Amino acid sequence: xxxxxxxxxxxxxxIRKFFDIVSEMKDAISLGVGEPDFDxxxxxxxEGIFALEKGKTFYTSNAGLKDLRSEISNYLMRSQKVHxxxxxxxxxxxxxxxxxxxxxxxxxxxxxxVIIPQPSYVSYEPCAILAGAKPVIIDLKAENEFRLTPQExxxxxxxKTKVLILPYPNNPTGAxxxxxxxxxxxxxxxxxDILVMSDEIYAELTYKGKHVSITxxxxxxxxxxxxxxxxxxxxxxxxxxxxxxGPCEIIKQMTKIHQFAIMCAPTTSQYAAVEALxxxxxxxxxxxxxxxxxxxxxxxxxxxxxxxxxxxxxxFYVFPCIKEFGLTSEExxxxxxxxxxxAVVPGTAFGDSGEGFLxxxxxxxxxxxxxxxxxxxxxxxxLRGLDK
Amino acid sequence: MREELLSIIxxxxxxxxxxxxxxxxxxxxxxxxxxxxxxxxxxIGGYHTLINWEKTxxxxxxxxxxxxxxPQRGQGFDKIAERIYxxxxxxxxxxxxxGYDLLVTIEEKSLKEISNFVTDKLSTLDRVLSTATHFVxxxxxxxxxxxxKANNEEEREIITP
Lengths: 388, 161
Description:
By secondary structure, chain A is of the alpha/beta class. Chain A has helices at 5-8, 14-24, 42-53, 66-80, 95-107, 124-130, 150-156, 179-191, 248-261, 267-279, 281-304, 329-340, 366-387, and strands at residues 29-30, 90-93, 113-118, 134-139, 161-166, 195-199, 224-229, 242-245, 317-318, 342-343, 345-346, 358-361.
């Protein structure tokens, strides 16, 4: 059967490939997930249940409940001092992932280039290709703590460049971009007149100061599609709820695609999300503190075992370097899985520049982390022993 | 670090110093000193274990007793509270706003022992006006812990993006 050439040519997710190996192993413990281990806070779930009980089971308006868009606007004002007009500059989507997809589709014309810094989340490249763009990859460097430097950006920009994807705080590296980093690249972005898609889904999980959105930098709001959502901050992955904010002309086109492809985001989730934004700050703070404790614990254990790792200040991942062992990321992860029964994700699942690194998630209980890291230490000792 | 330290050991007092220090991003000496200070100042009052007695075959009966008392001139409720909390079988005594004055939690091996305590000891105290005893039938949640939580199997996929 002849199927879409464009779709057939897209490589399947590297994560999926590794997942297939892991799922055959019964007693493996995992450090491989990209979602919180917390349950959604009860008051948020309760609001979802209440919405169902009241029979709020109909479509909402395409762009999302008015109340929810107002709360999103309030949230961005109190966290970033940036104003978005609820009725024209905010679109509620099915997870941040939908926002990435339709955001790119709304701005791309055939032949446009999309700059994607990697290692990064697995769906930017395929979404760019599906939108008809040519992905241009920037291989981020460990010595820059996987931040995007002005030089790297400048080198990647051509006269076909349309959008820069800015994935910070970053999955899988845990890297963040601070105010000064953002100011440095903003200058180039404005000068070269390109758009930014800023995926800030991990914004609330920042452990060094507060997250700074690029939209808060002079001249950037009008050229940025800001993407965020409820999955990571409020432990709501299964509710499938995210949002995009941007200039009204872009949001208008995105809403058109959303309207025809999706209709509206899940109604129950939208009601629950209103509660999350109104009364969820305390939960976010508690979860952030727990993640931060685990982050510090892992880094101190890596130091003890002499495993090289830069200090990541965001998301819930650490990205240690395993180059000293002379194995590829995939070889290391596969061997580690077979010998110690611990699943971690090879850095290469997030782009070629992830070679030599592993993504270790700390969205696990301390008990689980302690056991898994003990096994990692054991494994490394064995590998080092073989060298001698 | 005080608040963060306290919130960690409130949930897990068994945590070892090294792990605690790494989670807080502090040196072990600093954390040990802080714990010493907290203990000395009575901010850390003790290290207890939460036991679900229902799962053992050891009999335990818990009762909550509402007590109305006459406060004492110059002493308020403190004197009478002390008379009550000095009994070792009394697990907790709170001064409560509202319809009664003291809420007393008592744990004993049998109903009979509790009723003996109430009739012989508590009710006969001079300043106690009345008592109302409520026996606990089932503990669903205690000290922030759900007592009969189903074993939480990992429901997440092993690897997700």
